[in-house]
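Design request, C-alpha cells follow.
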C-alpha cells in the first residue's frame, strides 16, 4: 500500500469551510483524496456579502457544508458531527483588525466561545490531530526590528481586540493539550491573500479602487511591511503538516505547537504591493497618505525556521506572480465586488 493510499483514508472535519482559507483547503484535501467527514460554516462572514456561497459553488460543489453557527451549538452536538474524524481543522472566526475594534463583543463571542465549543467537542471525540487558526497580529510591532520567532509571542505586544482573541485561542489550545494527549497546532497566518479572498483586506481594496480609478489610502510613508502568504501556499503548507503528522501515526509533537504560516518570500511594503497590482492592471494608482490607526501593526516578519524543520521546503509562489494572478482574477470578476 502506498503512502498516498494511506492518506486517502484520513478523515477530516473543518469549521469555516466556506471561508477564504477553509474553502481552498477543503478543495485541496478533497482533490488529494482525503475524506471530508464534516464541514461547517455560518455563511455570515464579518465582512458581509455572499462570499461563503460563492466560494462553495466555485470550489466545493461536491462537498456538503452545513450552515451552522458554533455559538449556537453544544459541544455534544458538535462531537456527534465530528464522528470518527482523524483531523479537525478549526478556521471559523471573525477576522480583521479594524472591524475587531468596532465589534469588540461580537469578535470575542465568535472567536473565543466558538473555539471553546470546538475544543470541548474534540475532547469527546477520537480525533488524533487538531489545528486552530491563529494570527501574526499577536506579535504586535515586534516585526519592526526582527523576524518573529514563535517563542516571542507575549500578551504585552497585543495591539488590537482581534489579536487578543487569537492569543486567547492559543491559551485555550494549551489547556486542551494538557487535558488531551494529542497534537494541537496553532496556525499563525501572515496576511493570506489570493483569489476569492476577503474583500476587506488591503490588497483587495487597492485592486478595486484602482480598477474604478478611485483614490487608495496608504498609512505612513510606505503603508508598512508585511510577510505575505499566497492562498495556494497556505493550504499546501497545511496539507504538508497533515502528511508529516500522519506519517508519524499522529504522535509527532504531542501538546501545543504554534507555527508561523507564510510563503518564503521577503516581506514587502504596501507601496510595493500597489506597484505590482497597478502594473498587472495597467493603471496608475491615485494614492493619498494618512496616519496609521493605533491597532494596525507597522510591520510583520515571519521566521519560518520552525515550520521548515517540520515540513522541509516551504511552498512559496513568487510574490510578483501571485499578486499579478490575483489582480487579473479580480478584474475578470469585478462584479463580485461592491464598492
Amino acid at each position: 500500500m502506498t503512502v498516498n493510499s494511506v492518506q486517502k483514508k484520513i478523515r477530516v472535519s473543518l469549521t469555516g469551510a466556506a471561508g477564504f482559507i477553509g474553502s481552498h483547503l477543503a478543495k485541496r484535501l478533497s482533490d488529494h483524496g482525503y475524506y471530508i467527514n464534516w464541514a461547517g460554516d455560518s455563511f455570515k462572514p464579518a465582512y458581509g456579502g455572499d462570499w461563503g456561497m460563492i466560494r462553495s459553488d466555485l470550489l466545493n460543489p461536491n462537498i456538503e457544508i452545513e450552515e451552522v453557527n458554533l455559538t449556537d451549538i453544544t459541544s455534544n452536538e458538535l462531537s456527534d458531527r465530528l464522528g470518527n474524524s482523524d483531523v479537525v481543522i478549526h478556521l471559523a472566526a471573525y477576522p480583521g483588525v479594524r472591524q475587531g475594534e468596532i465589534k469588540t463583543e461580537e469578535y470575542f463571542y465568535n472567536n473565543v466561545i466558538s473555539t471553546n465549543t470546538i475544543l470541548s467537542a474534540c475532547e469527546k471525540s477520537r480525533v488524533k490531530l487538531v489545528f486552530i487558526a491563529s494570527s501574526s497580529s499577536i506579535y504586535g510591532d515586534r516585526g519592526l526590528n526582527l523576524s518573529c520567532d514563535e517563542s516571542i509571542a507575549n500578551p504585552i505586544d497585543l495591539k488590537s481586540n482581534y489579536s487578543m482573541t487569537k492569543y486567547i485561542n492559543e491559551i485555550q489550545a494549551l489547556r486542551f493539550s494538557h487535558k488531551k494527549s494529542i497534537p494541537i497546532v496553532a496556525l499563525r497566518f501572515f496576511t493570506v491573500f489570493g483569489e476569492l479572498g476577503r474583500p476587506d483586506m488591503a490588497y483587495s481594496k487597492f485592486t478595486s479602487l484602482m480598477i474604478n480609478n478611485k483614490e487608495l489610502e496608504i498609512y505612513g510613508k510606505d503603508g508598512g511591511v508585511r510577510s505575505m502568504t499566497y492562498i495556494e501556499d497556505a493550504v499546501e503548507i497545511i496539507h504538508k503538516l497533515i502528511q508529516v503528522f500522519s506519517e508519524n501515526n499522529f504522535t509527532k509533537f504531542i501538546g501545543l505547537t504554534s507555527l508561523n504560516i507564510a510563503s518564503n518570500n521577503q516581506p514587502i511594503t504596501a507601496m510595493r504591493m500597489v506597484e505590482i497590482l497597478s502594473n498587472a492592471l495597467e493603471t496608475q494608482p491615485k494614492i493619498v497618505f494618512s496616519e496609521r490607526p493605533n491597532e494596525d501593526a507597522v510591520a510583520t516578519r515571519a521566521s519560518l525556521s520552525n515550520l521548515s524543520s517540520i515540513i522541509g521546503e516551504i511552498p512559496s509562489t513568487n510574490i510578483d506572480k501571485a499578486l499579478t494572478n490575483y489582480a487579473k482574477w479580480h478584474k475578470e470578476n469585478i462584479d463580485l465586488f461592491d464598492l
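Comment from the thread starter after seeing the answer: thanks! The radius of gyration is 19 Å.
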